[in-house]
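[PROTEIN RECORD]
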Amino acid sequence: MPLRLPDLLPAIDILKRENIFVMNSSRAHAQDIRPLRIVILNLMPLKITTETDLIRLLSNTPLQLDINFMKLKSHTPKNTPIEHMMMFYRDFETMKQEKFDGMIITGAPVETMPFEQVGYWNEISQIFEWAKTHVTSTLYICWAAQAGLYYHYGVPKYDLPRKMFGIFPQHKLEAYAQLPIFRGFDDEFMMPHSRHTEVRRNDILSCNKLTLIAESEESGVSIVMARNGREFFITGHLEYAPNTLDKEYRRDKDIRDDVDLPQHYYRNDNPDNQPVVTWRAHANLFYNNWVNYYVYQETPYDISKIE
């Protein structure tokens, strides 16, 4: 089944060229199917790139998904045309009476700031609280994972001496290896990371409402689950495209003094070589499992009954 996307969304043409089956809203309205409603709160600077990355992963489910985009009223993006935001995004204020089967909240380039000093902290706190009763399952990614863990469970974040940057091997904790979210996973899987802060294992384990389900000897806490899968906190970026870290490295290497060569990324660790993509299969599995087992099989047919 296809994804149902807003008419004229730039991602449609990009994904069609990749032979991914997408459907615009006009055609989808003709089908008598109750699609799953997914809302994406996109906090990343390059909105169109992140939209395409996430939609590419969501496209692998056999279910029809109705993709919606949320924005913050208290923050104006600087790197995305205002026309794009007006055409495809809606303020939280206009959406807060609606309910959604699934939600994805992305990272944001504010991770070195204390949470309460982020300009939109009050508004995003309202969204975090709203999601508890208006969404069946929510994925929190990178900064959003740290912010969600802090808001919901009081888990602090810590500055890193050097940027955690590269593709790092992760492993499932044995006690949770059979969770549906890991169906089809190998014993180890790779995950891109690009962050200057971290959450720590001991803080997660000390909270009995949180379950650490995957981690890495190199990059630390990887995936945390709460409320039986109604919340997942992912410290890395499974959604990243093959060239994302390369772009970040070349953008920052002469500007910041804490950016090293991304680890386990370029062939032979040589930035003149192409990146080696080692995370894409598990990224597709993760998102497919999330949609199937934690959204579709848990959400009520009458979406108004989500609570």
Summary: The longest helix spans residues 280-296. The radius of gyration is 19 Å.
